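Dear support,

Our group has been running a series of protein-ligand predictions, and this particular one with zinc ion is the one our PI (initials K.S.) wants archived with full inputs and outputs. We had some confusion internally about which version of the output was final, so please treat the block below as the authoritative record. The input we submitted was:
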Amino acid sequence: MWKQIFWILWIGAVTWEVFLHSLEWRHLIKMKLNLNTVFDGYVQKSTVNDKNVDYAIEHLRISLGETLTNYLISAIIVAYDLPKLVDGLTAQISSPIFRAGAFGIAFGLLFWVSSFPWAWAKVFYVESKYKFNKTTKSIFIKDQAIVLSFIVLLSFLGFACFAVIFESRIWPLYLMFVFALFEIVAMILVPLVVIPLFFELNPLADEELIFKINELLRKLGINKIKVFVANASKRTLHSNAFVTGLGRNKKIVLFDTLVSSLAADEVIAVLLHELGHWKLAHALKRIGLVLAIQAVLVYFAFVMSNVGFMYDFQIQNPQQFAIYAFLLLNMVVTLFFQPCLLNFIRRQETKADLFAARHAGSSLMINALSKISTDNMAWLPRHFLYKAWYCTHPPIPERLRFLKTFTNI
Ligand SMILES: [Zn+2]
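Confirmed final output from the archive:
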């Protein structure tokens, strides 16, 4: 029965994701034909042209290719019982923990190899074609080598750890503890270890901006946060900003591309958006929701470990269970949890915009968002269903509409 459930979910999830991509595709084509009417009222028409739509279509094409590749891989894994094959290859390893870790690395590698051509195409085909790309082939290979090292490390640790805790009858509790620990360790290590591997972080050099930022932080009663500029222009011309870390390691990172393209007051507006995320404890709330979703999934996995699932897939050890359960539950996440989580995240973005508008005034935030969107060719509204399933931020016309309403209140 569980194999049938897997294939029903597989067909459902593939159909749904292809349907969402085709809806967005049609939406973009329709927009290209009616550019003038679509943007009326919210967006400067001069900034939107066919090129923006073509750029979005290219990204959509890559995203569809990547999605279909992942479904193909998961179908091959189940149809050809790859977990048993890989398990056979690791049979000589006498320690069950190392054996599970090696098994994890094999599957981590499989997913990395399948994602590599799409990552390459995104950078050297789409981003280069639209003149955003600054990444050289050697930087790309170096970045991928870092990604690969993390995949190898995390899949080894993850599977080895699961093999140990699965022996206990209360393994779901241990697993939830591991998930929570992982979130905390990641929050501490990402700003300290991961980000410096990709970017050189320097303190802001602009005296006027430093003065304004210090004034602002004093006004808001914040003294624990440091602002850094990342040399993102070595890889891309896209501009961005984010807040990362915990406690004393809290950092706001501004891309150098953003600092050079915005006026000082507009940089302050973007900074306020990031400070809004921090003041409103968005990262912690997001982790809370992620852990709640993981708790539901762990409960499902626990139910699966007690009924015919083990028999139907002829599972012989914890690592085999982990991979089959992951493939099945991943589709449950895609179909049901992804829109809930993304809706929560988009609402946080709107609240951060509101925080910035309250302290800097909406017109500055509108100007900053407009410039960033023009620089990033990111003006387009999304189909509402595509947005629900894939967008971490509300589309720019929605954000501007909201900020304009806020001005009028
Ligand atoms: Zn944000």
